[in-house]
Amino acid sequence: MGGLEAFVETPALRALIVDVPNPRRARPVLDLRDLRHCRELDWIELWRAARLRGVDVVAGLPRLEDLVVQSGNCEPTDVEGLPITVTPATRRHPGEGV
Length: 98
Prior knowledge:
The chain is mainly α and 98 residues long. It has helices at 2-8, 11-14, 43-52, 64-70, and strands at residues 17-18, 29-30, 56-57.
């Protein structure tokens, strides 16, 4: 995961961290919507790396429902700091059928 940590610390990624003018949010926000085209990224690890640094991640990640299932207690929030609701249908684990 060393490469991922190095990526998280790059200026390009730090530039995506924005402050949302909202009194309910005291933590910086990582807006990954501009990175949706980067198929080579491990999105779950990137999510965890950001959260470990105290950075919230806004909506826009590919396969957000998979991140919710696999990220344990890291529930996603939107740019307003409100929880993103994921319907039960999107919480299906791989291999459960369609």
